[in-house]
Specification:
Elements (H helix, E strand, L loop, with lengths): L34 H10 L4 H31 L7 H46 L2 H7 L1 H43 L1 H7 L2 H39 L1 H6 L3 H54 L4 H42 L19 E11 L2 E11 L4 E5 L6 H8 L7 E6 L2 E2 L5 H6 L1 E4 L10 H5 L5 H4 L2 H10 L3 H6 L17 H15 L3 E5 L7 H15 L3 E5 L3 H6 L2 E6 L2 E6 L1 H7 L1 H9 L16
Parallel strand pairs: 3-8, 3-9, 6-7, 7-8
Antiparallel strand pairs: 1-2, 1-4, 4-5, 9-10
Helix pairs in contact: 1-10, 2-3, 2-5, 2-10, 3-5, 5-6, 5-7, 5-10, 7-9, 7-10, 9-10, 15-17, 17-18, 20-21
Length: 617
């Protein structure tokens, strides 16, 4: 079968379907978090070049204003009297301070806008990508990790842009300018103090490399922790009914402890940077004051020159600290970038690609289909059968035999490992996913609902024209026998259903799911029989609604009720992933021992012992 939705890497490469690039593969070609990849990712968000350039120019202007202050202060110190201080000198100093403050503030605001814009654009791309991922990617990656990519990883990128990018750029400018002024004031003393900088670099560079590795581990741990929170809180009723609070607390506690350990290591690395810089600064001040004081005493250096020199030393030390912090944050951002790039590089479904599906009265045929969720663990083996148009086909068999997997293959959540599924003479993979899935209605046992109103759930996924047609919505609700209970609710169709529909009963949720399927008007209907877990009163109404829904449609039912089996045009008995029997209820009773046992114990039908004889499938 031809696959639709092949690799679409968003400019960063590709990977195999069914898992993110580089997931557990040492030889993967997935993009790494190089500086170039980081810059390309940021630039792919299309930040305003004008705003970014203006922010950096203003940051540079703020730095230049700060560089002028020591030279202006030099004149004041050399005057040594208030009478020698002119209004012009004071005005220049105040102007330098004002330029520094105003330009710095505006630069910070503009960079914040750029950072927020980049994060918004990245989150939009990630959200679109996550919605377009193949179902196996969700199986392998987990929803919590995907949430973490959207929130935590992009927040780290934003922090670098808004808080550290300006510091990196202006720090380089300030460092270069301060060094230039130091050389101008006294080049011999400047060369002496720069002996200490390589020593500091020998310590700071390994710290930066350590931070890079630590950042990647922290991102992965945060993703795993988010996954744990998502899993537990979304199933809190199961947790409480199972008395599993202590177990889940321990799982969360272990994750918190792991994040704590990584945080402490990061804090230790960051804590080393400040003392190192303080030691370097104190060493430089001692050297400058001692050596410079001697030159002032001998008259080869003025007191103003010495004061300016000391101020410029601070303008060397502070930028070095800013650059060190910025580079550390850059390492963290690169670690986050690696996860984002890997996600953006994952293959995705292309729902509009392919031929539009049209409602043609042709059979759906499984032909020698094999499927495995994991290599070496087959779920379906050489499965072949057909679904005649307008017919009702029931699938029965032991639990775990692969019945639900058949539904997943029909929905094209997964592709067969071998064999093919056809609609008429055409492989269903030739149809666009949008039109193919739009032709299928699926009602499951649990009938999941989204948070929102009853109207939101009835119209979920249907066109705006149908959703806006109140008469059609009400007609679907009547056909599903849901209109009476909806009318009895305080706000009718605008009643909130709660998280996952918790405010409604099981029978009410089932009828809403049936009404939603009716609104879609599908050609193909798949039912994981909806009445198996309902009380007898709810079952009656749901069964009536299902009869309305099945009328005139090709229907495939995972059967748990005797009535469904008796009404079926054909029954498929699947055990261990293989089709071992096909035919009517009477035919299988006569020919299939396991089906007879299944009818007695699962469908609760008393049958007389019959001599089994083989039935060709």
């Amino acid at each position: 079968m031809r696959h639709h939705g092949e690799t679409h890497g968003g400019g960063f490469g590709g990977g195999a379907r069914g898992g993110f690039p580089d997931s557990g593969n040492a030889d993967s070609k997935a993009p790494k978090a190089s500086l170039g990849a980081f810059v390309r990712l940021i630039w792919s968000a299309k930040p305003s070049a004008f705003v970014l350039g203006l922010a950096l120019i203003l940051g540079a202007a703020s730095t230049v204003g700060g560089l002028l202050v020591p030279m202006l202060t030099k004149g004041l110190v050399n005057g040594f009297s208030l009478s020698s201080v002119g209004a012009g000198q004071v005005g220049l100093i105040l102007a330098a301070f004002l330029v520094q403050a105003a330009a710095g503030a505006l630069s910070g605001y503009l960079l914040a806008r750029v950072g927020q814009g980049v994060v918004a654009a990245l989150r939009e791309r990630l959200w679109r990508k996550e919605l377009a991922l193949f179902v196996p990617d969700f199986d392998s990656e987990g929803s919590g990790a995907l949430v973490s990519r959207m929130t935590n990883d992009t927040a780290v990128v934003k922090a670098f842009i808004t808080d550290h990018l300006a510091g990196l750029v202006t720090g380089v400018i300030s460092l270069a300018g301060a060094v230039g002024f130091l050389l101008f004031l006294n080049w011999r003393m400047t060369l002496v103090i720069f002996v200490a900088l390589p020593v500091a670099a020998l310590v700071l560079v390994p710290i930066g490399m350590f931070m890079s590795k630590l950042a990647r581990r922290t991102m992965d741990e945060q993703a795993a922790f988010t996954g744990t929170l998502s899993r537990v809180l979304s199933e809190i009723r199961l947790v409480k009914s199972s008395n599993a609070e202590a177990r889940e607390f321990q799982v969360g506690k272990d994750a918190i402890a792991s994040l704590y350990t990584l945080g402490v290591r990061e804090g230790a690395a960051m804590a080393l940077i400040s003392p190192i810089m303080s030691l370097v600064m104190m060493f430089l001040l001692v050297v400058v004051i001692g050596y410079g004081g001697a030159q002032v005493a001998s008259g080869t250096l003025t007191a103003g020159d010495l004061v300016a020199f000391i101020l410029y030393i601070f303008q060397v030390i502070m930028p070095v600290a800013m650059i060190s912090q910025a580079l550390t944050q850059l390492q963290k951002a690169r670690g986050a970038t690696e996860s984002i790039i890997r996600l953006l590089a994952a293959p995705e479904e292309r729902t509009e690609e392919g031929t539009d599906f049209e409602r043609v009265d042709e059979a759906i045929r499984f032909e020698n289909v094999d499927f495995s969720y994991e290599p070496g663990n087959p779920v379906l083996r050489n499965l072949s059968f057909d679904l005649k148009p307008g017919s009702l086909t029931a699938i029965v068999g032991p639990s775990g035999g692969g019945k639900t997997t058949v539904f997943s293959l029909l929905e094209r959540f997964y592709e067969p490992g071998s064999g093919a599924i056809f609609h008429g003479a055409r492989p269903i993979g030739d149809y666009s996913l949008a039109t193919w899935r739009g032709s299928i209605g699926y009602v499951s046992q649990d009938s999941p609902l989204m948070s929102g109103t009853i109207r939101d759930n009835l119209c979920y996924g249907v066109s705006a024209a149908i959703a806006g047609d109140q008469a059609k919505v009400e007609e679907a609700a009547r056909a599903a026998y849901a209109d009476a209970f909806i009318a009895a609710l305080p706000k009718g169709y605008d009643t909130e259903v709660g998280d996952r529909g918790v405010k409604l009963s099981g029978g009410q949720r089932q009828r809403l799911a049936i009404a939603r399927a009716l609104l879609r008007d599908p050609a193909i209907l798949m039912l994981d029989e909806a009445t198996s877990s309902l009380d007898s009163a709810s079952e009656v109404w749901v069964q009536k609604a299902l009869e309305n829904l099945m009328r005139g449609r090709t229907t495939l039912v995972i059967a748990h009720r005797l009535a469904t089996v008796l009404d079926a045009d054909k029954i498929l008995f699947i055990e261990g992933g293989e089709l071992t029997g096909a035919g009517s209820h009477e035919e299988l009773l006569e020919s299939h021992d396991l089906y007879r046992s299944f009818a007695q114990h699962q469908l609760r039908m008393p049958v007389a012992p019959l001599v089994a004889r083989p039935l060709a499938v």
